[in-house]
Amino acid sequence: MTSWTPDLSGRQGPRYRAIADALADDVASGRLPAGTRLPTHRDLAYTLGVTVGTITRAYAEAEKRGLIGGEVGRGTFVQGHKLLTQPSDPFSWSPALEPSIVNMTAITPEHKLTAQALGPTLAAIGASPNIATLLEYSPHAGLPSHRAAVAKWLARQHRVTTTPDNVLLATGAQNAMAVAIAAVARPGDVVLTERLTNYGMKTLAAVEGYHLEGIAIDEHGVVPDAFDSACRRLAPKALYLVPTMHNPTASVMPAARRQEIADIARRHGVVLVEDDVFGFLVREPKPIQAIAPDITIYVSSLSKSVSAGLRVGFVVAPQPLVPRVEAVIRALQYSSPPLPAEVAARWIADGSADRFAEFQRSEAAARQQLARSILPADVVCGHPAAQHLWLVLPEPWRRDDFVAEAARRNAKITGGDVFAVGRASAPHAVRVGLCHPTSRDDLARGLRTLAETLENPESAMLSIV
After folding, report:
1. pTM value?
2. Rounded distance, CA 250 to CA 96, Å?
3. What distance in Å separates the CA atoms of residue 388 and residue 196, rounded to the nearest whole number?
């Protein structure tokens, strides 16, 4: 173990971040080569005259940047230089580099059934007489046969009734979301969203220059009065929301609340952008699109129900907005790749996609039951059919301390601050992705770590000065 002591002179900001910055500088300069074992939390805290909690947060920040990695029973070590180029992303993680860690930051479903089906499907596509069509530029909105297949899928799995003419293909839900917002807003325009929202919406707004405003939510989703007030004050172009299995809280907006939101949007001339990527998990209530198809741009994908890697997403737009959505698709990507869409269309036609979706529903329910058998009932929030859950931390736990302590124990979760919009204060809660660990055994191991961490609040007190 090295006797490393960081140079903190002249460094501004929180102490834990200054320590992480000093560590980054020493790794970059070669003072701390790959494989160096760092001082323990307590030793470094004593040397610097800070709390152990401060060192825990510093090491967690350094680990997030890819600088270091911990091994239970052995200590904390400097990682190789190749990790330094990885982007700072709260959901980035490499199982090859961290095999002992249970990653519950992402919501990525099991894909073994699709992996088994892909080879035969690709072989059949390769033998098809019209394969050349899949190697050419597609129409901007997608091939007619693919749009028709998606329309059938939406009716069967998402309770969305539409025609192929209103369906436009995208490259995953994130791209569909970007296309939908760009069709109705310009840089500088106000776009509303829930106070806690999908991280992808935050990154999109930052890149495209939208003025994102978070509005209040409760256990049922967007609060109608808060939405109405924001419409009066801010003249927004759109409200982006995830009413079914809200990301991150896993709540489901009741039908009556959906009608209220639609009525307010229509009254103020605001377009609703409904993200229904989790909609296949429950039969009721129906999407807002079914209530107000004339003012709703509906976005979804096959990422949670069939396969994340296919990157097959779709937009259902009101007829007057179809040309604008299509123009955005052309500008951003010309068209979505037809080969993945062909795979999806064949699976929809032969019933394979429905079988895959049913497996995901069953697996999500089983993992929810597992989670609720391990975690304290009074801290678990969210719908029991969701692929994730929302863990509201009891006193004295604070969000950052709990995330850092869980990471130290080899369980990765996502703090509520990642989803907070603007300067809105995030609750002391974390999102737990249940379907990303490769097995239920791995998930159980991670959940037991969280339960044990909750039962040891003395770790939470270490950061209090």
Report:
1. 0.79
2. 29
3. 15
Domains plus CATH for the chain? 15-88 (1.10.10.10), 143-350 (3.40.640.10), 354-463 (3.90.1150.10)
Greatest distance between any 2 Cα atoms in the chain: 73
What is the C-alpha to C-alpha distance for residues 333 and 137, in angstroms, rounded to an integer? 11
Separation CA 413–CA 418 (nearest Å): 11
The conformational region for residue 439 under phi > 0 = left, psi -120 to 50 = alpha, else beta, is: beta
Question: Helix or strand or coil: residue 92?
Answer: coil
Closest CA to 342 of 136, 160, 161: 136
Asked whether the predicted pLDDT for residue 76 surpasses 70, the reply is: yes
Collect all residues with Cβ–Cβ distance below 8 Å to 3 and sequence separation of at least 6: 39
Cβ atoms of residues 165 and 315 within 8 Å: no
Nearest one of 463, 464, 445 to 404, comparing CA atoms: 463
DSSP state of 1: -
- Reported as a single tens digit per residue, the pLDDT across 133-171 is 999 999 999 999 999 999 999 999 999 999 999 999 999
Bond into 285 cis (ω within 30) = yes
Give the pLDDT confidence of 366-390 residue by residue, as tens digits.
Answer: 999 999 999 999 999 999 999 999 9
Here the tokens at position 228 are: 């109405």
Copy the structure tokens of residue 217.
């939510």
